[in-house]
User: Which sequence fits this backbone?
């Protein structure tokens, strides 16, 4: 199959698997939904007798489902197949069974799409597309099971758990819900019972092949035909989509090995590359934003924030949020996301408040893109407390560090200083910043954040408010240029 046709079928499957699982569950299960909340539908499974009539769970926030009696689950495509036939096709190679095709056609019809058999593909191309999907699902199953393993290791490691809880405003319930884990890969003991290491557990206990595990990106192939884990000694945050884990990011801890390649605060899975990482599956591409499934609930407002723990803090506060887990959203992601957030009434952008102003600059770029797409966009400014201001004053007085300097510029400016002074400057630099997670960890509430949303400014208002009043005329004129251009654009559009 050509690259263009492969992309076409990938887009087809993406569209049908992004249908809201809550909408489909209500249509197919109806009166079998016995209890419901904003996050969960509990249903009487149509394929087994149940006294509780609540064994089939539809998780609306994760866009997944699981029947605790039947022992099966998946995303919206597997739910349709299960309800219609009692079967679930997962990780199967070759052409898909008729039950899968019927479920696929059902979802396509809900979107006004023709069946894949009428998409202009030959039977061989359809079989190839189905085979690719089967492997794609199998790889995501492996990532999901890896997340479960690391989650168990976090729960069993009090030191790692306490270290995480001391830094992040994440409740035990949220840790459980998102399967946040700790990357310990060696054999271990729990309640004096020997537990296998990660590779042994995934291959012998869960039945994954080494090829499937290598395809996740979470393991490096070795010259001895074995695998080495990509994460070691890190807190691991899974990205969920359609009821499965589709990506992972790891936070460095005191137990992360001191190798040069482990110095980054965060480390994301490596992604598929046709030249250097062909063993990684094409579905491992870091194209999913953290908590992206919230868009399927069609929220009236949306918060875009910077980091994974910032996003989790807002999720925990009950606020609809997504995160690219970086300062900027890629252009390719914008092309996919803008149509999906077109129905959102107001989009708020809330990035880190730091000396480098990287977060604020990224927020302004994001806001400009959204405003250009016709979306009402507001910028949220996180307030600095006295400790942040004191750290900034001390950096300026002792080390000559001024505004708009990043970590690399700081390192160059301090390179001739003694190690103790460098360490002190880096500590102050870290303390001079506030992010959403710290905002909540300091004791602020959802109501406090609502006040920030109420005070949020349009991109133009934000830019005007940040103009320095004491800047020289030439600098002020330079800063006014983009503002005046924005005013002219608004007047032209109006």
Assistant:
């Amino acid at each position: 199959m050509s690259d263009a046709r492969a992309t076409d079928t990938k887009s087809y499957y993406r569209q049908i698997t992004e249908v809201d699982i809550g909408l489909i569950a209500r249509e197919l299960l109806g009166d079998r939904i016995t209890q419901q909340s904003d996050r969960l539908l509990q249903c009487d499974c149509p394929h087994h007798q149940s006294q509780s009539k609540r064994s089939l769970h539809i998780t609306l926030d994760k866009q997944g489902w699981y029947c605790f009696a039947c022992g099966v689950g998946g995303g919206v495509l597997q739910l349709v197949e299960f309800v219609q036939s009692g079967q679930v096709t997962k990780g199967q190679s070759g052409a898909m069974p008729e039950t899968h095709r019927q479920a696929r056609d059902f979802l396509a019809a809900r979107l006004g799409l023709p069946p894949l058999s009428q998409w202009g593909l030959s039977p061989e191309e359809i079989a190839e597309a189905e085979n690719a999907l089967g492997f794609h699902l199998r790889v995501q199953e492996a990532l999901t099971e890896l997340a479960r393993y690391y989650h168990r290791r976090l729960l069993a490691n009090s030191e790692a758990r306490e270290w995480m809880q001391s830094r992040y405003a994440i409740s035990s319930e949220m840790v459980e819900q998102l399967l946040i884990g700790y990357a310990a890969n060696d054999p271990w003991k729990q309640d004096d019972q020997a537990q296998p290491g990660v590779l042994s557990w995934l291959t012998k206990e869960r039945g994954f092949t080494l090829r499937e595990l290598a395809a996740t990106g979470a393991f490096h192939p070795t010259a001895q035909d074995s695998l080495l884990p990509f994460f070691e000694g890190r807190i691991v945050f899974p990205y969920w989509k359609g009821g499965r884990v589709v990506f992972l990011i790891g936070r460095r801890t005191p137990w992360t090995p001191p190798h040069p390649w482990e110095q980054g605060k965060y480390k994301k899975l490596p992604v598929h590359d046709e030249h250097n990482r062909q063993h990684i599956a094409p579905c491992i591409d870091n194209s999913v934003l953290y908590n992206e499934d919230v868009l399927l609930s069609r929220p009236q407002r949306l918060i875009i924030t910077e980091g994974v723990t910032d996003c989790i803090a807002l999720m925990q506060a009950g606020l609809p949020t997504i995160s690219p887990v970086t300062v900027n959203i890629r252009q390719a992601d914008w092309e996919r996301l803008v149509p999906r957030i077109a129905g959102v009434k107001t989009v708020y952008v809330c990035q880190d408040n730091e000396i480098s102003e990287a977060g604020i600059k990224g927020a302004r770029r994001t806001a400009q893109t959204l405003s250009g797409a016709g979306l009402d966009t507001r910028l949220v400014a996180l307030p600095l407390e006295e400790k942040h201001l004191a750290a900034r004053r001390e950096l300026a007085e002792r080390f000559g560090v001024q505004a708009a300097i990043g970590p690399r510029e700081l390192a160059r400016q301090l390179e001739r200083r003694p190690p103790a002074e460098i360490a002190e400057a880096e500590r102050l630099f870290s303390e001079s910043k506030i992010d959403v997670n710290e905002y909540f960890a300091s004791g602020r509430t959802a109501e406090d954040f609502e006040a920030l949303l109420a005070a949020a400014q349009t991109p133009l208002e934000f830019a005007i408010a940040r103009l320095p009043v004491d800047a020289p005329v030439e600098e002020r004129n330079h800063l006014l240029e983009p503002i005046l251009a924005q005013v002219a654009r608004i007047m032209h559009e109006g």
Q: What stands out?
A: The longest helix spans residues 123-156. The longest strand covers residues 244-252.
